[in-house]
Amino acid sequence: MHIKAITLQGFKSYKDLTRVAPFSSQHNVVVGENGSGKSNFFFAIEFVLSDEYQSLSQEQRVAMLHEGAGLAVMSAFVELTFDNSDERFPVDRDEVVIRRTIGQKKDEYFVDKKNTSRAEINSMLESAGFSRSNPYYIVRQGRIAALSMMKDNARLDLLKEVAGTRVYDESRAQSIEIMEDTDERRTKIADVLKYIEERLAELEAEKKELAEYQELDKDRRCLEYAIYNGDLKAAVAELEALELTRQEQVELAETNHRASADDSELLAAREAELAALGGKLEELKAKLKAASDERTDALENKARLELRVADALRSGSTKAQRFAAMRTELDELTRSIQAAEARLAVVEPEFEAVKAEEAALAAQEASVKVAVDALYAKSGRSRQFSSPAERDAWIQAELETMDALVASKRDQVASLEAEVAAQSTAADDVATRRTALKAVIAETAGKMESFNAELARIKAERDEATNARKEAWRVEARMGKELEAAAAKAASAERLLRSSMSGAAWNGVQSVSRIAAQHGIAGVHGPLIELFACSDEFMAAVEAIGGSSLFNVVVDDDEVAAQVLHVMNREKSGRVTFMPLSRLVNNIPPLPVSDDALPLLDQLSFENVFEPAMRNVFGRALVCRSLDIAAHFAASASVDCVTLDGDKVSRKGALSGGYTDKKRSRLVAMAQVRAARAESSALKASAAEAKAAAVELDAKVTSLLSQAQQVQASRADALDAHRRAQDELASVVAQSTASVTSASAVVDSLASVQAELARLDEETAALRAELGTPLVSALTADDKAALDAAESRLADLQAQLLAASSTRAQLELEKAELSSTLANHLRKRATELEQELDGVRLEAQEEDAASLEAELAAATKAAETAEARAAELATARDAAAKSEAELRTQVEKLRAADRIHRTTVDEQAQAMERILQKRSVLLASREEATRKIRELGSLPGEAFDKYENVNAKTLLRKLHGVNRKLTKYNHVNKKALDQYISFNEQRKSLRERKAVLDEGAASIRELIDSLDERKDEAIQRTFKGVAMHFAQVFRELVPSGKASLVMLTDDGADDVASDSDDDSGLAPMDENRPTSRSSKASAAKGKAAGEGPERIRKYVGVAMKVSFTGAGETFSISQLSGGQKSVVALALIFAIQRTDPAPFYLFDEIDSALDAAHRTAVATLISKQAASHSAQFITTTFRPEMLDVAHQFYQVVYSKTAKVSTIQQVDQETAKDFIAGIMAQEA
């Protein structure tokens, strides 16, 4: 086993979480500067393992917490992780983690994260090999020096500590304490025995007088028994006679009670029926009024719809005639439009063809005319111009003018062509827009039809929801009435319950419920009466036993009761008794078992949590068949008994009962309150459902009205869109007509300009042809022939052109007339008729006679239903009124009979009360006589018949005489015989106890002797082992030297231990050791006096003799130098460790006072012991020798600014460099 890891946080200078691992299972060295925290690291291990720090005060714990910059550390922990592969710890794990956590107010141990006590930790460590008597597995700084300066007697104490004599000393001290206590008790027993012997002698003399007294006393008790027995018999006889009378009265009372109860029940039932019938009558009246109002509304609605239907039908007839006329006119217009369009379709192509022909003829005519004009101009040039040059100049000028005119005409042609194209595009747009508007008109018409259908559906749903809402309102009103009746019932039951208790108690109970609800106090369960239920036959018995306790308030504990009482006292709100469940103890004895009696508690049903309260009130009660059985069990079993009629016999003897009015029963009232509350709760739920249904239907009606408004608004929007589309379509049609006319004019203008341009081109060509020609005064033959031909051609063309123009003009006129008729009359009127037809159609949809007739049918049905409901309710009201009158008469008769029965019952109750009072007196007399007989104690056998036939006067006279004789024996010790027997038994018991104590004292003395011997043996054994290992270790540390331990005795003789393995160095002990029994006794006597045993007392110290040269004189440790003393002290420590080995060792700078040679020897010894004994070493050093033989290295670093230490694992070279640096600083 060895330490694998150490984790600490917040401890001393280690503020942050620090984990040091892994540790070697052999030798580990920790290096660091002075003040860096090495000692704190070792102290952390001691803090977990050492008993020295087992109990720490708060100041000590705070001192161990880290103090430095930053936030204060509130807790710290040190955790050691052990390798347990060798199972030295008694746990089935290869690794064990022990943690100790401290804070200002806590100090806890954990083993593998489970909270553990320090005692369990110590037990684990001892089982793993840690000796509590040997603290030298941890060697702190300064302990070497302290050990080297230790006195001989202190060294002996150390040896005793290592030997574990503390256990023996503690056991011996305990044994001596027990022996002293035993001796003290033996002395006391002896004193008591002496007193008992003296007292027995005195009692022997008093026995004779006692016998005479007892004879007279026996006669007295016989007389008293006879007198008391006579009184008992007389009381029993009177009780039996009274019981017969009582039974007769009970039977008569029961008969009257039953009759009265039957009448009362019948009266209550009839009164309840009357109240219910009155409520029902009021409800019927209210319903009848509502039904009448509803019938009136339905009839008014029906009449209004009938008028609307008639109007709709009349309007529909007129609109139908108008619609038919417009439809006929529209059909005729459609046919006219079709005929005109057909004729126009024929005329337009003819017109276009003639127009084209006319244009062609005009172009030819212009061309021929240009040729003719050119020939005539050519023939007249000679008269106009004097030379060709002048002519050519003039031609050039004309050409320039004509070119400009041609250019202008060409621009005009381009402009007209662009205008034609634009008008064509506009015509296409108008056509597209016209198509779109027609689609819009069709779409809006369809939407309006769908909106009309949707409106019809919504109206139907609205009417249905409205009718359902009315029904829900009626149900809600009925539930409200029923809820009021239930509330009145509950109030009546609560008034009855309140009348059965005081005002302060009632206020207190009510205040408790209110305060618990207002202040949110949990754990208040309410009055006891509300927490259980029972059958009707046991109610009287339960109420008789419970009494005022029925209104005790059950709570969880005292704290809840205190909270409620605090508020009640502050508000001064009544008085109440609490029953804290946590305080109620079930200490009730078992009840007797019988066929004639049942435990009352078993007849109640309640939750298990309330059983302590129920048992506290009803646990001691029995329900008995009769009053006699009740009296019997009350006297014999000391329990409260009660009959089913409520007659109660207390376990203390009191008898109570009589007539009880069930109407004023608390339990009956509570049952009625429960029933009324349950009914109210159910009605509240039903009313809430009805209200929710009404609210839901109201919301539905509102939603449907909203939907109707939205649909109407959408329909209006669609109608507006429909009409706007129709208006825009008419505008588009007009625009289309105007566009067509304008386009035709532009096309004509374009054709004219094009013809003019062609003529100009021909004239220009003729002039250009004339340029450069000779100037002639007459035409040539060819020119004349051409002129003649051209003139002839021109005449023909002019005749053809005139004919074509005439035809074109006729066709154009017809076309214009057709287009005008279509655009300005036929199509315009058709559009107007279509719009009017749409308007008529929409009006018909708005005032649909069929839908109005459907509404009228629904209204008619609603009116009929309302009429039938009103008639039905009127019939029911009349029947209820008649039944109420009849029932009221019955109730009055029953009330009169009930008053008679109550008077009779009250008289019988008074008579029964007198009987019960007399019975109580007789029962008391009987119990008194029985008690007196019981107090006589055990009677002689003759007492039962000695004075059986003697009268009471004689018995009293004789008793007076006996009592007078007994006065002479007033001084007699009436308990002498009993005391004699008692003292004799005490003497026997004390003698037996004294014998036991004597044996115990002897055993304790033997135990003390055994402890002394075992302690002596332990010291001898330990001294031998330590002495042997001391010599061996010293030789290993100083090969040329030798050493031994010397046991110093009080007689001056020294027992020397050599370095031989076989010789312990102790002198023979047989001559000085006491062996006889007397010697042991004297030794025990010395132990009892607080002295040590003789064989141990002769040792006064342990000295050490050493020689560092191996030859010559040996020296005591006081004669050595400082370094030599450290070597000797280390040898002793290693010797102790070898004698009582531990799993690991902690050495804190043990080599600080050694020279290099001895440091090397110590390091070698540690390495050897770690390897050969499987022991782990964790050491600190400032010298390099330890580093040479170590296996793992750690360095402690301290931050002066943060005041925090940390530990890090380093290699051997780093550790050596650090040590070298330290040594260089010291040099």
From TrEMBL:
Occurrences of domain SMC hinge (ranges): 522-634
A Pfam family assignment: SMC_hinge
UniProt xrefs under SMART domains: SMC_hinge
Keywords: Cell cycle, Cell division, Coiled coil, Mitosis, Nucleus
The keyword Nucleus appears for this protein: yes
Gene Ontology CC terms, in alphabetical order: chromosome; nucleus
Bias (Acidic residues) ranges: 1054-1064
Coiled coil stretches, renumbered: 186-343, 399-468, 750-876, 973-1021
Compositional bias of kind Low complexity: 1078-1090
Superkingdom per UniProt: Eukaryota
Residue span of region Disordered: 1054-1090
Gene Ontology BP, a term: chromosome organization
Major subcellular location class: nucleus
Subcellular location as annotated: Nucleus
GO function term, MF aspect, one: ATP hydrolysis activity
Listed PANTHER family: STRUCTURAL MAINTENANCE OF CHROMOSOMES PROTEIN 3
Similarity comment text for this entry: Belongs to the SMC family. SMC3 subfamily.
UniProt-recorded name of the protein: Structural maintenance of chromosomes protein
Source species: Thecamonas trahens ATCC 50062
High-level lineage: Eukaryota, Apusozoa, Apusomonadida, Apusomonadidae, Thecamonas
